[in-house]
């Protein structure tokens, strides 16, 4: 019974969070010389290559690449979801999020919000390790079915360990952990697999996959899209998909748009 409620609670957080970021501007160069045939002069336009300062996170999940000390970002996803992260030290960071729509749509108990603390570090440029503890205040939305006699928890914790392989431009992260609602631990682990690859000067492919394993029935959610990089701003554009929730938006899932602002 708990697992059915747990899935509902998890998706009230993950579905609005799963989104893509698109970003513009940045330094660097990609040369594309061509000749105009005027007075024998040759002009060389340059596409600036932005410094990728977004390697610490994907759409919803995080990598084990540390967020630099006294730096952070604010992200807005589909207007409603607002999140922020900040590096307290070179290895310790905190983050949180608040969904504005849930202020209206949630049942008694308040809106959907999260709080997270993460410790991580790099053994080399290609190998990074981390661990995190996240609290989800994920109330059941109005209209969502709750079995009679089921006690819905106020929220739950999720503890995850993670490993990231690769630099910030070409990375793969595998995370695993357990949930706890304050009374009992989830019966099976939660697994996240996420990755990013820079395919153009300022464009990255980003993908994210969540697997909630269950002895009776497993549940999975997926997101894929592109991230356009800029020095201070990034924009994600993508599609989130699962069989139970996002297919109610369109048959192929839920399109989403997010903007990330560094500070």
Write structural notes for this entry.
This protein has 263 residues and is mainly beta. The protein has one domain: Porin (Beta Barrel). It is built from two helices and 16 strands. The protein has helices spanning 2-17, 102-105; strands at residues 30-31, 34-38, 41-43, 46-47, 72-77, 81-87, 92-99, 113-122, 127-137, 156-165, 170-180, 190-200, 203-212, 219-228, 233-241, 254-262. A hairpin with a 4-residue loop joins strand 14 (219-228) and strand 15 (233-241).
Q: What is the domain total for the residues?
A: 1
Question: Helical element count?
Answer: 2
**Adjacency order of strands in the biggest sheet:** 5-6-7-8-9-10-11-12-13-14-15-16
Strand % is over 45%
CATH topology assignment: Porin
* Spans where pLDDT lies below 50 across 5 or more residues: 15-39
Based on the structure, what is the oligomeric state of the protein chains? single chain
Largest sheet, strands/sense/barrel: 12 strands, antiparallel, barrel
Q: Give me the secondary-structure category.
A: mainly beta
N-to-C order of helices and strands? HEEEEEEEHEEEEEEEEE
Number of strands: 16
- What's the Cα radius of gyration? 20 Å
* CATH architecture descriptor name: Beta Barrel
CATH superfamily: monomeric porin ompg
Q: Kindly, what is the distance between the CA atoms of the first and last residues, rounded to a whole number of angstroms?
A: 43 Å
């Amino acid at each position: 019974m708990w697992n059915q409620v747990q899935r509902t609670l998890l998706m009230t957080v993950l579905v609005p969070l799963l989104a893509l970021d698109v970003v513009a501007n940045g330094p660097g160069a990609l040369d594309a010389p061509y000749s105009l045939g005027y007075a024998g002069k040759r002009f060389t336009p340059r596409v600036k290559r932005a410094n990728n300062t977004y390697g610490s996170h994907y759409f919803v999940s995080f990598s084990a690449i540390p967020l630099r000390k006294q730096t952070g970002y604010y992200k807005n996803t589909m207007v409603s979801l607002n999140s922020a992260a900040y590096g307290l030290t070179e290895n310790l960071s905190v983050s949180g999020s608040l969904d504005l729509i849930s202020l209206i749509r949630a049942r008694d108990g308040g809106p959907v919000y999260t709080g997270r603390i993460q410790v991580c570090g790099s053994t080399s440029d290609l190998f990074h390790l981390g661990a995190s503890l996240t609290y989800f205040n994920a109330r059941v939305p109005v209209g969502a079915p709750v079995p009679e006699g089921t006690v819905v928890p106020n929220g739950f914790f999720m503890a995850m360990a993670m490993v990231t392989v690769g630099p910030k431009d070409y990375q793969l992260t595998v995370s695993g952990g357990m949930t706890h609602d304050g009374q009992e631990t989830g019966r099976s682990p939660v697994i996240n697999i996420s990755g990013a690859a820079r395919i153009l000067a300022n464009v990255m492919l980003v993908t994210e996959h969540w697997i909630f394993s269950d002895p009776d029935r497993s549940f999975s959610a997926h997101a894929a899209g592109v991230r356009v990089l800029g020095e201070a701003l990034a924009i994600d554009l993508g599609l989130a998909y699962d069989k139970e929730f996002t297919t109610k938006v369109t048959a192929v899932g839920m399109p989403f748009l997010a903007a990330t602002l560094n500070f």
